[in-house]
Hints:
This protein is mostly helical.
Amino acid sequence: MDREPTQPRDLSLLGLERMRILDLANSWSARTHQGYRSRIKAIKGFERLHPGLEILAKAQIQGPPRDKAIPLCWLECYQSTKNSPVQGRDKMSYNTIRLLCSAAGWSDTVTMLVSNPGSLMFEGKG
Length: 126
């Protein structure tokens, strides 16, 4: 997306972004967060003791991310809210949703091979 999501039609995308961030935040256990918090505090304390020494890189955010991975994550979140076409299942299975990434990767590979003939080599199995 080459703009800030400020239009009414963007509300669903903002909701999907919230889902993505919550999924990311909850992908680690609470104990992991607690354990790292104290270690990060120690690293920052060491950096304060030694001005000019930088251990933890600071994010230099120039604007919203433009990577294709984020809309793909939104698609996964969106699909996870859909009902499954398989009778007896309420929601889509994890594997069905995961295959979206595989399909996108396959499509990118084919696109690169077609748009750059002769400069890429596809290694098959064997």
